[in-house]
Amino acid sequence: MTKQELLNNGFQHFAKREYDVAQDCFKQAIELDSKFEAAYSALSETLNRKGELDKAIEVVKMWIKINPKDALAHTAMSRLYVQKGWIQKAEDEMAISNQLAYENSGM
């Protein structure tokens, strides 16, 4: 399967709440392309749904390392930090996200 097919397959399992299978699909997509940001996003949300917040945070850290200017990655990190109760860290990440979104808007 291609990375896109694995991602799509993972989304289908995610929609059915088959999180373990979805997780495997997203991991395989990342193995095929270690810079496939959509797979990092999907994997982090899958881990979040499974209650594995620390693992989800690690995945988002890898995503941010690949593309530090991705506002969505910083928003995802902010959401995870809120769930952990780390409000200041969450606010810091959201500020980064907002700044990046502004810069990317062309204004």
Note the topology.
Blueprint: H1 3-15, H2 19-32, H3 37-49, H4 53-66, H5 71-84, H6 87-104
Helix pairs in contact: 1-2, 1-3, 2-3, 3-4, 4-5, 5-6
Describe, in plain words, how this protein is organized in 3D:
This protein is mainly α. It has one domain (3-104): Tetratricopeptide repeat domain (Serine Threonine Protein Phosphatase 5, Tetratricopeptide repeat), CATH 1.25.40.10. It contains 6 helices and no strands. The chain has helices spanning 3-15, 19-32, 37-49, 53-66, 71-84, 87-104. The longest helix has 18 residues, at 87-104. The protein is globular. The mean pLDDT is 96.
What about the largest sheet?
none
> Helix- and strand-based class?
mainly alpha
How far is the first residue's CA from the last residue's CA?
A: 40 Å
CATH class, please? Answer: Mainly Alpha
CATH topology name, in short, is: Serine Threonine Protein Phosphatase 5, Tetratricopeptide repeat
CATH architecture identity: Alpha Horseshoe
Please give the count of helices. 6
Order of helices and strands: HHHHHH
User: Rg from C-alpha positions?
Assistant: 14 Å
Q: Which word captures the global form?
A: globular
Strand content: under 5%
Overall domain count: 1
Averaged pLDDT, please? 96
CATH superfamily: Tetratricopeptide repeat domain
Q: Low-confidence parts, pLDDT < 50 over ≥5 residues?
A: none
Helix content: over 70%
Number of strands: 0
